[in-house]
Each structure stands twice: as structure tokens, then as C-alpha cells.
């Protein structure tokens, strides 16, 4: 199946999601978030909010705690202290699959796909997060099971078209070019119908033209009704696509503001250029 009309793609890609938070209000509230390993704080008292409908960049030098923060938000790590409130409800010790059901999806620094499955099959797996068929329904091929299976294929194709790789639908994920694997991972994350999409270094390994295309895709994702949290090392991409940026260094937040303000912040410049603290104006 191939969907050619923009409105039809938009309808299939971004179905109605039950979001309690109004546009522009805080969708994700991170408060005093601390993650310790063996008594050492990888994340130390970090607080920030993500507003519904914005693209927030989370940046910092290597070892700043960006991925640790991602992992604490998405349930990979349990915070030592602090809280994460999502769409009005605390996440607490919620399990990872439950966090996905609540509406947080993510990609990874290293692409994680089912290599022997086709691109379409990979995306259809993502739609399972919203399916309601029971085990028995699947075993006995209930009417609901068939309907959900058909809808998964339709929506999977719409998502592949949305990210620009519909022509790869029948190819094994392992055979796709690296850039298309990255796009496939984003499509699979979108298939879970997230309220918040977390992208962990999506431009890693990309050439300049691929990065420019990725910037357009991220903006299109936001324009389609999603909220985006982005970790990325490429400052041109971050400055060109985000509405706001949070900067970490050694596990602590050192800046939070609009791209222009962050770019000119002396503490941020020092963190990236290695200027001693006593030389910061």
C-alpha cells in the first residue's frame, strides 16, 4: 500500500492521542533528577521542563550526563533522587513498557532494529504497543486481531512514507543504507503513538546533506503534533531545529534557554572549549 495524499498520511501518522496537557504547557517535568552509580553522581540535581509542541535540545560535552538523563526519563535507570512527571502523572518506578504505553518513545545512539525483519515489519512491531488483542485473540485470530493487523500494515506504510522510505518497505532492515535505518528507527518509535519522541543522536554518522534532510524531518514531526526531546552533538543541527536548549556539564545543568542565548552563554562556551572557570566572564 502507498499513501500519496498529505492529509491521509497525516491522519494515519498522527492519530488522536489522549493528551491532558494543553499546547504550550509543561508536558514533561524533570525535578532535581539525580542518578548515582557506586556513589558517583552521573546526573546531579537536574531540573527542566518540556512544553507540549516544542523541540527541546539536550546538549553537553562527552560525559555530561545527556544519555543518563534520557535513560532515567525512559525507565532504563531508576533515579536515586528527584522526580519525573509526564502529562500530569509521576513516572516513579514505572516499567519501560508501561512508559511506552503512557506515551514516551525513543531511539538509540546505536541503531537497534530487527535485522531479519523487513522495514514494514519493524514498524508494525511498534504498533503493538497500542493493540488491545489478547493472547487468545491472537491464537484464535479474532475479528479484533485481524482489524488491528490490517491497521498496523496501513499505518506502517504511512509512517514509512512520512519518513521518506516507503520504497524500502519490503527490504530487510539489515540491508538498508545506514541513513534509512535511522529513519526506520524513527518510524518505529512513531508507531507507538508517542506524546513525546526522544531522539538520541539521530544524526550520528550522517553526511551534511543527510543532516539537512534530518532537520526537515524533525521539524515535520513536530508540525504533525509531536513533542520532541533531542540529544545531538552537531551544533548546526541543534541550533537550526530546536526551540529551546538545556545544557549539561558533569551531570549538572549549566544553561537553559533559546538557541541564540545558549550559543552566547559564557558557561556553555567554556564547557565546550575547555576554558577554566575563573576565566568565565
From TrEMBL:
Pfam family of the protein (one): ABC_tran
GO molecular function annotations of the record: ATP binding; ATP hydrolysis activity; L-isoleucine transmembrane transporter activity; L-phenylalanine transmembrane transporter activity; L-valine transmembrane transporter activity
Alphabetized InterPro entries for the sequence: AAA+_ATPase (IPR003593), ABC_AA/LPS_Transport (IPR051120), ABC_transporter-like_ATP-bd (IPR003439), BCA_ABC_TP_C (IPR032823), P-loop_NTPase (IPR027417)
Entry keyword Transport: yes
Name of the featured protein: ABC transporter ATP-binding protein
PANTHER family: AMINO ACID ABC TRANSPORTER ATP-BINDING PROTEIN, CONSERVED COMPONENT OF ABC TRANSPORTER FOR NATURAL AMINO ACIDS-RELATED
Boundaries of every ABC transporter domain copy: 28-275
Gene Ontology cellular-component terms listed: plasma membrane
Keyword terms of this UniProt record: ATP-binding, Nucleotide-binding, Transport
Biological process annotations from GO: D-alanine transmembrane transport; L-alanine transport; L-isoleucine import across plasma membrane; L-valine import across plasma membrane
The keyword Zinc-finger is assigned to this record: no
Amino acid at each position: 500500500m502507498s499513501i500519496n495524499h498529505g492529509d491521509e498520511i497525516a491522519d494515519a501518522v498522527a492519530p488522536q492521542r489522549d493528551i491532558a496537557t494543553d499546547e504550550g504547557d509543561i508536558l514533561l517535568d524533570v525535578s532535581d533528577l539525580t542518578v548515582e552509580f557506586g556513589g558517583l553522581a552521573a546526573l546531579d540535581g537536574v531540573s527542566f521542563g518540556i512544553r507540549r509542541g516544542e523541540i527541546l535540545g539536550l546538549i553537553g560535552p562527552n560525559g555530561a550526563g545527556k544519555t543518563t538523563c534520557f535513560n532515567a526519563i525512559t525507565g532504563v535507570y531508576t533515579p536515586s533522587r528527584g522526580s519525573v512527571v509526564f502529562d500530569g502523572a509521576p513516572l516513579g518506578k514505572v516499567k519501560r513498557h508501561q512508559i511506552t504505553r503512557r506515551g514516551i518513545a525513543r531511539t538509540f545512539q546505536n541503531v537497534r532494529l530487527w535485522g531479519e525483519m523487513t522495514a514494514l515489519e519493524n514498524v508494525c512491531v511498534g504498533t503493538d504497543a497500542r493493540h488491545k488483542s489478547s493472547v487468545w485473540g491472537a491464537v484464535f485470530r479474532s475479528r479484533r486481531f485481524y482489524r488491528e493487523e490490517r491497521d498496523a500494515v496501513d499505518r506502517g506504510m504511512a509512517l514509512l512514507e512520512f519518513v521518506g522510505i516507503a520504497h524500502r518497505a519490503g527490504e530487510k532492515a539489515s540491508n538498508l543504507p545506514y541513513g534509512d535505518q535511522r529513519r526506520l528507527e524513527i518510524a518505529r518509535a512513531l508507531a507507538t503513538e508517542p506524546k513525546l519522541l526522544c531522539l538520541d543522536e539521530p544524526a550520528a554518522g550522517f553526511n551534511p546533506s543527510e543532516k539537512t534532510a534530518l532537520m526537515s524531518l524533525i521539524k515535520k514531526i513536530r508540525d504533525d503534533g509531536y513533542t520532541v526531546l533531542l540529544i545531538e552533538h552537531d551544533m548546526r543541527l541543534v541550533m537550526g531545529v530546536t526551540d529551546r536548549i538545556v545544557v549539561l556539564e558533569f551531570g549538572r545543568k549549566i544553561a537553559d534557554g533559546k538557541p541564540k542565548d545558549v550559543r552566547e552563554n559564557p558557561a556553555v562556551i567554556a564547557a565546550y572549549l575547555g576554558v577554566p572557570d575563573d576565566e568565565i566572564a
